[in-house]
Write a sequence for this structure.
């Protein structure tokens, strides 16, 4: 399928208008960079699907341009691939970790989650955004107007952007929403004003994963029978060492969920094997080695074993009820 975007051609007057307004203050190189992203994404700067923002770089001691795309632009880019398969969420949770599909409390949620599905992919892409990691603050340290008025909506946009970028890395790599800017991978620095005050609340760059977190993630990957290379590809990072400490906490929770699922499957297989009077060598010969199976293979083995046991019971004239009891729930 050809997923190339039909890019819009801009006349000279339109280009000048974009540079004077949407890319105000941009250098010639920055303007060319911005227009390159416009043509790559097929977004329309005149409808505010994509725009440029000048931010102060403390390290370089100068302003630099960053390119931002609204969440509607993210959705449009993903939709044009014709490979999206829907979403679940957003969901929000408080300190108790209980997810809800609507946030009714007066205080901000602790985290937001959104799940994106992609055609042909067996696993969904989950975006989890924590309030403390993304809230944007004024110079006095308080949440700014939008994050104070609608924290649930702002945090949901961050979670959706994370999930969409993971699901469509070729199309969205290096592109961020305004709600994400200022934190995480898109950290902007604050510009000092003439009175010495900061224009926005400046935070230090995100800390990288600690040695303790790194060791724990590798241990969890081994318990989940996962490949470190495949895991890094799914997370769109070059290595585990490149993960931030906040993301490491999110991945830890996801791996624990995978391990719990795997252990439940192994337990169910053990129950079915006892019902069928199968020894470990006999099971290994018929269905494979449990230690080498991922969750998909375990689920298939459990269902195959349940079907074989049901057929054996039926052949012996066992009541239907007895067969029903050993059916797997997957």
């Amino acid at each position: 399928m050809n997923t190339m975007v039909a890019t819009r051609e801009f006349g000279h007057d339109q280009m000048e208008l974009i540079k004077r307004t949407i890319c105000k203050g941009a250098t010639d190189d920055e303007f060319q960079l911005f227009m390159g992203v416009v043509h790559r994404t097929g977004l329309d700067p005149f409808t505010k699907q994509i725009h440029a923002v000048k931010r102060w770089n403390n390290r370089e001691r100068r302003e630099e341009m960053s390119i931002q795309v609204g969440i509607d632009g993210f959705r449009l880019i993903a939709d044009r691939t014709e490979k999206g398969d829907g979403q679940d969420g957003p969901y929000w949770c408080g300190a108790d970790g209980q997810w809800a599909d609507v946030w009714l409390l007066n205080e901000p949620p602790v985290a937001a989650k959104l799940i994106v599905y992609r055609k042909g992919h067996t696993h969904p892409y989950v975006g989890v955004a924590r309030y403390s990691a993304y809230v944007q603050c004024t110079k006095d340290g308080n949440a700014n107007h939008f994050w104070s008025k609608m924290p649930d909506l702002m945090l949901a946009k961050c979670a959706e952007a994370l999930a969409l970028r993971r699901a469509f890395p070729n199309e969205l790599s290096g592109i961020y929403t305004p709600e994400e800017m200022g934190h995480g991978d898109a950290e902007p620095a604050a510009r000092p004003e003439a009175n010495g005050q900061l224009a926005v609340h400046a935070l230090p760059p995100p800390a990288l994963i600690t040695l303790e977190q790194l060791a724990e993630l590798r241990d969890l990957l081994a318990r989940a029978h996962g490949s470190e290379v495949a895991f890094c590809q799914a997370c769109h990072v070059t290595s585990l060492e490149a993960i931030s400490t906040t993301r490491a906490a999110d991945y830890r929770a996801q791996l624990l969920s995978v391990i719990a699922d795997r252990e439940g499957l192994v337990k169910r297989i053990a129950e079915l094997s006892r019902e069928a009077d199968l020894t470990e060598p006999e099971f290994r010969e018929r269905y494979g080695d449990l230690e080498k199976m991922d969750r998909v293979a375990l689920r298939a083995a459990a269902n195959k074993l349940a079907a074989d046991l049901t057929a054996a019971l039926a052949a012996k004239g066992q009541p239907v009820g007895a067969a029903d009891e050993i059916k797997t729930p997957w």
About this structure: The first strand starts at residue 50 and ends at 57. The chain has 13 helices and six strands.
